Amino acid sequence: MRARVFVTLKPSVFDPQGRTIAEALHSLGYSNVGDVRQGKYFELDLATEEAGAARRLAAEVADKVLANPVIESYRIEVE
Amino acid sequence: MRFGIVVFPGSNCDEDAFHAARDVFGQDAEYLWHKDTDLKGADVVILPGGFAHGDYLRTGAMARFSPIMPAVRAFADRGGPVLGICNGFQILLESGLLPGAMLRNRGLKYRCEHVHVRVEQTDTPFTAAAAPGQVLQIPIGHGEGNYFAPPEMLEAIESNHQVILRYTDPGGRLDDAWNPNGSVHAIAGLCNERRNVVGMMPHPERACEALLGGVDGRAIFESVIGVFRSAESLALHATSVGVGAGRSATLSGADRSARLSGER
């Protein structure tokens, strides 16, 4: 099964890269784009066919390595 | 005393730290390869600057899983002095040996310049030779030095006096214009609750010789060498007056170091 993990900075953490991207978009004329926040995307190839087990394994990996819990949160999609 | 300088793939300030310890201060120094588990009798461990594991995933995120780190952690748990410089500070944060995390510099630029930092606490092995409020001019070189801690953690850090260094103007005054990376509360260096593990973004090992532009970094090294010497002479004195009779006069590195911080 494949798990997708989306890691983003917590809302309380200032994201200078996201801000810079938003400003670049605005200077390109995209006034309808508001705030932008940049995150990370991981695809995990998991040796299990059970969605619950895949989700738990992905969460464990995310907790331990992929995300820094002080500044980041994550969500998981499993297929 | 013996300095143990950990080398990760991608560390690039290990030689500067080694040079400072051995050539400038005349101390014993050893490199500790990240895949080894032996600290080689180090009395103080330095995690040097650089880009361990290419800063892949997050700066310091991979290095915390290196085989040497459990030995470093055990050394720290015994009270041994550990100094993380720049990338080393980032590794200590990712390892949980220090609280908080590092973000990208607020201005997104890599800052390579001299900064002024004020010594906030002198009761750590790495600031004992400095005076409270002393301003040190030391170089930085980092793109991710924006220290962050969530409000509750930050409050605990401040009330425990764990902030060791703050970015200031040349006169030692707090001024956001003199904060090169946007770190909260202008934090440039921090210690753990036990006060034996210190992380700092500036590079003291690059400020130990006038030829390189300044000698304010000497205070960091003089502190840990001085504290070690005091602990050693205390131990020898105790032995010579018969206290702890039956113990050898030579303590292990960790035992000596344990006397330095919080083990009173």
Would you give an account of this structure?
The complex is a heterodimer of chains A (79) and B (264). Chain A is an alpha+beta fold. Chain A is built from 2 helices and 3 strands. Chain A has a single domain (2-78), classed as Mth169, Chain: A (2-Layer Sandwich). In chain A, strands 2-1-3 form a 3-stranded antiparallel β-sheet, with helices on one face. The model of chain A has no long low-confidence stretch (mean pLDDT 95). By secondary structure, chain B is an alpha/beta fold. Chain B has one domain: Rossmann fold, CATH 3.40.50. In chain B, helix 5 (218-240) packs across helix 6 (253-260). The longest helix of chain B is centred in the C-terminal third of the chain and has 23 residues, at 218-240. The radius of gyration of chain B is 18 Å and the shape is globular. Chain B starts with a strand and ends with a helix. Residues 243-254 and 259-264 of chain B have low confidence and may be disordered. The chains are: A alpha+beta (79), B alpha/beta (264). Chain A binds chain B through residues 12-14, 16-17, 20, 65-66, 68, 70-71, and chain B through 57-58, 61, 94, 100-101, 103-108, 148-150, 153, 182.
Topology:
The complex is a heterodimer of chains A (about 80) and B (about 260).
Chain A lengths: L1 E8 L6 H12 L11 E7 L5 H16 L5 E7 L1
Antiparallel strand pairs in A: 1-2, 1-3
Chain B lengths: L1 E6 L6 H11 L3 E6 L10 E4 L20 H10 L4 E4 L1 H9 L5 E3 L7 E9 L15 E8 L3 E3 L2 H9 L3 E6 L18 E5 L5 E4 L17 H23 L12 H8 L4
Parallel strand pairs in B: 1-2, 1-3, 3-4, 4-11
Antiparallel strand pairs in B: 5-8, 6-7, 6-9, 9-10, 10-11
Helix pairs in contact in B: 5-6
Provide the descriptors you would attach to this structure in a database record.
heterodimer; A: 79 residues; alpha+beta; Mth169, Chain: A; 3-stranded antiparallel sheet; 2 helices; 3 strands; B: 264 residues; alpha/beta; Rossmann fold; 9-stranded mixed sheet; two-stranded antiparallel sheet; 6 helices; 27% helix; globular; disordered C terminus
